[in-house]
Amino acid sequence: MESIMSDPDWLADIKFSDQGLIPAIAQDSKTNRVLMVAWMNRESLLETVNSGYSVYWSRSRQKLWRKGEESGNVQQIEEIRLDCDGDVLTLNVVQKGNVACHTGRESCFFRVLKDGQWHTVDPVIKSPEEMYNNE
Amino acid sequence: MESIMSDPDWLADIKFSDQGLIPAIAQDSKTNRVLMVAWMNRESLLETVNSGYSVYWSRSRQKLWRKGEESGNVQQIEEIRLDCDGDVLTLNVVQKGNVACHTGRESCFFRVLKDGQWHTVDPVIKSPEEMYNNE
Fold it and tell me: B118–A82: do the CB atoms touch at under 8 Å?
């Protein structure tokens, strides 16, 4: 990525947390289903906007996380929205492979609360082994 | 609310932050549109589940925020989901008055990034004065 001389105006409207992060909700652009929630920092958001594909900030690995880099399940950006407080983003995406979750499911939100228990209600579309093992 | 003898099992599966909070994404149960994102603590989540209506934790006011208490725009819970990491909730809700945002719009996500600027693309359905001034 090229060096940035100064922040674009749209970036200045965003209220990053004390850690320099903002949560991003990725939704299927056709059904609006929430697929996953991850974090972005300034750099990952700029790369997302410039590249047209979701790039998050991995808090555990402390590095850019180009979604789908390993699994191939990239997210093509259709629309980015900012909320009234300027501290949450939604991303409307086309999810390659129809799998956003590392468990091989369409969405990370596959557990429903019912009768005092979490019930897994969505199928595994692609096994994690198949997604991450390219030997 | 009655005193709780011990945490129910489903609550033990939730990974609250160091501050004891979890973000909750409220979506329209019919269209899946993301309406707002707010925080819940243990107490507000229990009250949400027991009452069937969204109760958040206001970080700025440090108190329970029974959504719609002032405006009348309550959120009736249809479904609660937990993500794979156990640290984000989605709420499928029926939004009374079709207004979730304090600006009087359906959703807090009314600004779209286009050509390097945020564009407000959604109309005000009910004026904030009308919502909050009941004199």
Answer: yes
CB pair distance less than 8 Å for A25 and B25: yes
Q: What is the pLDDT of residues B107-119, one digit of tens each?
A: 999 999 999 999 9
Phi, psi of A131 (to 5 degrees): -75, -40
- Distance, CA of A119 to CA of B1 (rounded, Å): 26
Total count of domains within chain A: 1
* Six-digit token string for B83: 């993500």
* A48 domain residue, yes or no: yes
Phi, psi angle pair for A107, to nearest 5° = -130, 150
Q: Is A6 on the interface with B (CB under 8 A)?
A: no
Q: Chain B residues with CB inside 8 Å of A33's CB?
A: 32
Residue A118 forms part of a structural domain: no
**Interface predicted TM-score of the whole assembly (ipTM), two decimals:** 0.93
Are B109 and A82 in contact (CB < 8 Å)? Answer: yes
**Any B CB within 8 A of A23 CB:** yes
B35 within some domain: yes
The arithmetic mean of pLDDT across residues A33-55, rounded, is 98
Q: Do A34 and B27 touch (CB under 8 A)?
A: yes
Q: Which structure tokens are listed for A98?
A: 């129809």
User: Across-strand partners of A112?
Assistant: A119, B81
pTM of the model: 0.94
Structural domain range at position A58:
9-98
Residue B118 domain flag: no
Gap between the Cα atoms of A74 and A58, Å rounded:
16
Nearest CB among A8, A112, A116 relative to B9 is that of A116
Q: What is the CATH number of the domain that holds A39?
A: 3.10.20.810
Q: Which residues are registered as beta bridge partners of B39?
A: B23
